[in-house]
Every structure is written in structure tokens, then in C-alpha cells.
Write a structure and sequence with these properties.
By secondary structure, the chain is mainly alpha-helical. Helix content is about 70%, strand content about 0%. It has helices at about 1-25, 30-45, 50-65, 70-80, 85-95, 105-115, 120-145, 155-190, 195-200, 210-240, 270-300, 305-330, 330-335, 340-345, 365-390; strands at about 255, 260-265.
Length: about 400
């Protein structure tokens, strides 16, 4: 008998989740936003696309001359038919040397500490982080990762177009979907003015549990659709072929910090394809974090508009703290502000790297994601408890 009751409850829960999912799928506003996101990303891809003829030439040259620069590569490339693309390729690859042979991670740490005038624990933490990077530098030097030709001079443009622009847009759209789905799910009864009838049933306000599950599935699915379609458009427009296997630490891709050029050093071996997959997978954590905080705001606020305003003000305050603390040299406050959902999302172009001044430990983006998820889960549990007890009039 008890088993039948439990089975019946599980069936009703699944039925309610499906019902709430259908309600979200019937909202035209979310479909319009989905189409606008895809259209914007397509415009982003096609608007920043140039030099595809040279990229196609480098892709063919890799098959004849190889993918690793050096005297042998340059000699084989010199034997190819004369063209403007050949002259450019030879010019960009001539005399290439391994970036990591003479690279000193501790020198980078000292340079950052001097530029930002770090003192105390902040300087010590930065030194410890770059000490842990030294074995990674030796691994990259041994594998000649920086000698990978990639797309030659177009490598940085392609990487920036994909990671700094397209992935930024996809992650931003994903967190917006998360917030919208959370607020629509948690506040749908108030918006439709059906809360009296719904909360008078046997399930009552506990239906928020099923709403939570349905909204999260919807937000994750919307993020997945936007990510897959956008990346497919990018891949179809550029047709990179073997260039997708380019290591992220190639010397043609670097970052700039306060006018200083630094190599793009990842904590593990990542090709362009692998790094894209890792960024999009960690992006699910961004969606989850903002969904949990958005749903909590929807439970605590009187309506969805107030909840959205609450989230906006908190995010704006987080940005303001980061900017003011950095300008004032309050590095303790600055580093603390980097362990927040907004900083977690904003720092994504440097995910899986040392992240310069923005991180004090290796793989900090993963630690920040886990911490934000734990904090959001705890806060949401209190939000549910408060919602079950508060007066809904």
C-alpha cells in the first residue's frame, strides 16, 4: 500500500513537471528571444568574418608543409606555388622559436606584482600560483605546443571571434534564459492571477518544486540549442578542418595585461575544439548558478519585476565593487569579489588559464563555479522555506 502511494506521488510529480514545462513552451516571448539570440549570433559570426581565403590556404599548406613550425616547415612551404598567401605565411612563420623554452612563470608573477603594487597575502598567493604553473610550462616546452602553426596570423582573430565574442554572447544569453525561466516559473501564478486557485489545491504552494525542475530543464535546453546552433554556424562559415586541433597555447594566441603580452597557458592540454567543449560545459554551471539565484529572487520578491530588479541591482553592485576595489588597490576586496557569479561569468575568456590578477589559485573558475552553486543551493533552500510560510496576500 505504501509503495503504491509513493509510486502515485512520483507519477503526479512527473505529470506536474511536464505540465509546467508545457506552460513555459507556450510562452511566445521566450521563442522570440531564442530566435533573436540565434540571429544576433549569426550576425556576430558573419560580421567578424574576414580573411577566409588566407585561412583556407593555411589549411592546405598544413597538409603539405606540416603543422609545426621550424626550418623543415619553412623549407617545405617555400616549395609551394608563389602567391600572396604564400608570402604572408612565410613572413609570419620565418624564424619562429618556442615561446616556452625561455619563459619564466616567476618573472611574470614579479611583473604583475610590481605593476599592480600587490603586497601581503595577495602577492604571496600570486607567487604560489605561478610556482605551480612552472611544471606546466616545462610540459608545453617539451611538446613544442607554441610551434603549432594553427591558422598562422589569422589564429588570434579566429580564436577571439569564437571565444571572446561568440562564446561571450552564448553564455550571456544562457544566463538571461536562466533568469527569465526562473522568474517566469516562480511567478507565473501571480502573473496570471491564478495563485488563489492553484495554492488552494492539495499540493498547494509546494507545486513550486515541480516548477523549479521544469524551469531548469527549459533553461538548460534553451542554452544548449543556442550554443549548438551558434557553433555550427561558426564551423560552417569558417571550415577550419585540421585547424580545430590547434593547441590553445600556440604562440599566435596571447593575452595582454596592462600592456604586457603573455602567452595563453592552460592548466591542461586543450586543442581549439576541446577548449570550446570545456567552455560550453562549464557554461552549464553559469546557467545553473543564475537560475538558482533567479528562482530564489522570484520566491523572495512579491512579483517577477521586483525579482528582476533585485538581481540587476546585486549584479551592478558586484561590478562596481570589482572596479572600485581594483582602482583603489584594495586587492583583498577585489579578489573576494572575483568569487561571485558575475565575476564567474565575466572572466570566461580566461577560463582554464592562470587568469592573471583575477585568480589566486589554479583552476579558480571551477572552484568559483562550485562555490556559487553551493551558495545558491543553500540560499534557495531558505527561499523555499520562507515561501512556504509567508503570507501570499
Amino acid at each position: 500500500m505504501l509503495h503504491r502511494k509513493k509510486a502515485g506521488r512520483r507519477f503526479r510529480c512527473r505529470e506536474l513537471v511536464c505540465w509546467e514545462w508545457k506552460k513555459l513552451c507556450q510562452m511566445p516571448m521566450l521563442y522570440i528571444f531564442l530566435l533573436l539570440c540565434v540571429a544576433f549570433n549569426m550576425q556576430l559570426v558573419f560580421g567578424s568574418q574576414y580573411g577566409e581565403d588566407y585561412v583556407a590556404y593555411v589549411r592546405q599548406a598544413r597538409q603539405q608543409a606540416g603543422s609545426r613550425m621550424g626550418e623543415a616547415f619553412w623549407a617545405r612551404a617555400s616549395e609551394m606555388a608563389d602567391s600572396k598567401e604564400k608570402e604572408r605565411l612565410l613572413r609570419e612563420t620565418k624564424g619562429a622559436k618556442d615561446t616556452f623554452e625561455d619563459y619564466d612563470a616567476m618573472e611574470t608573477a614579479a611583473r604583475l606584482i610590481g605593476m599592480y603594487r600587490l603586497e601581503g597575502w595577495a602577492a604571496d598567493a600570486l607567487e604560489r600560483k605561478y610556482q605551480k604553473q612552472e611544471p606546466r610550462i616545462r610540459e608545453l616546452a617539451a611538446s613544442d605546443a607554441s610551434m603549432e602553426v594553427g591558422a598562422a596570423g589569422m589564429t588570434k582573430e579566429i580564436f577571439d571571434a569564437l571565444f571572446a565574442k561568440l562564446c561571450r554572447a552564448v553564455l550571456t544569453q544562457g544566463l538571461l534564459f536562466a533568469v527569465f525561466a526562473a522568474l517566469c516559473s516562480s511567478g507565473s501564478e501571480q502573473i496570471e492571477r491564478t495563485w488563489r486557485a492553484v495554492y488552494a489545491t492539495k499540493r498547494g504552494r509546494y507545486v513550486q518544486r515541480e516548477k523549479f525542475v521544469a524551469g531548469f530543464v527549459y533553461a538548460t535546453a534553451a542554452y544548449g540549442i543556442v550554443a549548438v546552433v551558434s557553433c555550427a554556424v561558426f564551423a560552417g562559415s569558417w571550415r577550419l578542418g585540421e585547424i580545430w586541433q590547434t593547441p590553445m597555447s600556440t604562440q599566435f594566441y596571447d593575452i595582454h595585461s596592462m600592456g604586457v603580452r603573455l602567452p595563453f597557458v592552460t592548466w591542461a592540454d586543450f586543442t581549439m575544439r576541446g577548449y570550446l567543449a570545456a567552455v560550453l560545459l562549464l557554461g552549464i554551471a553559469v546557467v545553473a548558478v543564475f537560475y538558482l539565484f533567479g528562482y530564489c529572487a522570484g520566491l523572495l520578491a512579491k512579483n517577477s519585476y521586483a525579482a528582476f530588479l533585485l538581481l540587476f541591482l546585486v549584479s551592478a553592485f558586484n561590478f562596481e565593487v570589482i572596479l572600485l576595489a581594483g582602482n583603489a588597490g584594495r586587492w583583498g576586496v577585489y579578489e573576494a569579489a572575483m568569487w561571485t557569479p558575475v565575476a564567474f561569468w565575466w572572466s570566461h575568456p580566461l577560463w582554464f588559464t592562470d587568469m592573471g590578477i583575477n585568480a589566486v589559485v589554479p583552476w579558480q573558475e571551477c572552484a568559483v563555479g562550485a562555490l556559487c552553486l553551493a551558495e545558491a543551493a543553500v540560499l534557495l533552500s531558505f527561499g523555499f522555506r520562507h515561501y512556504y510560510r509567508k503570507d501570499l496576500k
